[in-house]
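Q: I have 579 residues here and want to know how they pack in 3D. Can you give me a structure?
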Amino acid sequence: MSAAPLSFGQERFWFLNQVEGFSAAHNSAEAFRLSGPLDAGALEAALGDVTARHEVLRTVFPLVDGDPQQRVLPAEEGRPGLVVAASTEQQVRAAVAEAAGRGFDLTVDRPLRAWLFVLAPQEHVLLLVFHHIAWDAWSAGPFWGDLAQAYEARLAGAAPSRPPLQVQYRDYAVWQRAVLGHEDDPESTLARQLAHWRTELAKIPRELDLPVDRPRPAVPSRVIGTVPFRIEPELHGRIQELAREGQATVFMVLHAAIAALLTRLGAGTDIPVGTLVADRGEEALGDLVGFFVNTLVLRADTSGDPDFRTLLSRVRDTDLVAFEQKDLPFEKLVHALNPERSIDRNPLYQVSIAFYDGVENALDLKGVRARHESIDTDSGTLDLVFDLNQTKGASGGPGGIDGVLAYAVDLFDRDTARHLARGLLRLLEAAAADPGAPIGRAELDFPLDRRPALRPPSETPEPPDQSETPEPSPAADRGARTPLEETLCGLFAEVLQRTPIAVDDDFFLLGGHSLAATRLVSRIRSVLGARLGVREFFDEPTVAGIARRLGSAAREDRKDPLPPISRRPAGPTGTGRGA
């Protein structure tokens, strides 16, 4: 089967997978307690049926000519298999967490793994681990439905008979690029939305001043902790009433409350947060497993100590416009704005809101009772994530909102995270009781002097306007001094499609981006036979830095000089475009 390009969202996950060393930060693990006479053979066969139906679950993402590509494995080769292991009630939770925490190498690993832990003849725990390059929360519906049908068929000794899917994920990836067009075409969707976001996110804070317990480390551990909390049905109902009165949504009320909370805790009055939006507008995509979500950056203006009604109105107006401009891939946005790159924090936002409207992970295997189990996952990439799932009561009214606050252990103690979750509840209660009161009046029961030693209160510095690709600084205009640096300058110029390249020029400040970095690393490996990882390049994205890493002294002893690539005209490899 021919290779296909990655979707824009997949490109970001692929790049992060290379930079972060195959961490589990982008795993999605689902575990179920299964009680009853389970047929493990039928279950394994059913998993194979589902991966045969959904190509993305049997897709690997190797580099092809410097770019990652989707390579769909044949159905038999792509079956995930089912690892069956004996366990006990005392051991199984740790065993599930350990398996869920194993990373993927997306260039060779299929993005789905499955374990069945046997506790007793009729008591099991099923664990499925997906990488987000092939999975989102809205994939749960089609996946569990297809698995249940396939299992029932296999119990009867037959393969499931279902009409084939209208499209596969790789068709979506090709379609996405065709529909969005190219940023060089001013009439394209991509160009129009890019113009909006450049204006909307101009001078966005580089980093929120959060009430951390410790300074941000240079190299993050990516370890997260979680604090569960719940918005009870009574408060949920009052939140819905606030939304109706303000011609807003429940999400917008929660967004306004989180922005107010962060302002109250010293994060300033310009509060950017990230959120996910589903991109399943086409009917054919509704039954498809895959990653179809995009990230939006939403800014909230909390200046002037507004009352909650006023803040909700501001948030509503901002969010409505943002949702109308939701198609621009986040990767394209990061490339266009070119914020300061750092391995220690997420670009453009460090806090996110994940809001689900009654999303349920329901598995219904014939003859077996299935109950969803929580998993002790411990890997993530953001400082704070407010995970919120709105539910309905038995009569269809408000059933409450189940919340989890995930926090970076590098920065926060668990007690601080508890205070943050409790502070959000207090602020929502105050807003529901008196939406005309200033947000600064709500009692949060949380100390406001939470800044660590050596981090005094200060205004967030504004990054330079990087909407246009900057020219190299004349002060750093040092030319190549060795054959190795000359070769590297040539490779930089080839991928970036620009000259001259000075040895101290930063690849990203010259307009480079994640995929271009991948292409460059691939070219360096090919031309120099060097072992260079994307993470190493990210740490030192200059010719001088890469030359040091490759060990220039050893290479200077070669009898045959390295080819002066910088003197050749740039070829078609690496156009400098893409996410």
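Q: Anything worth noting?
A: Residues 414-433 form the longest helix (20 residues). Residues 61 and 107 are 5 Å apart (CA to CA).
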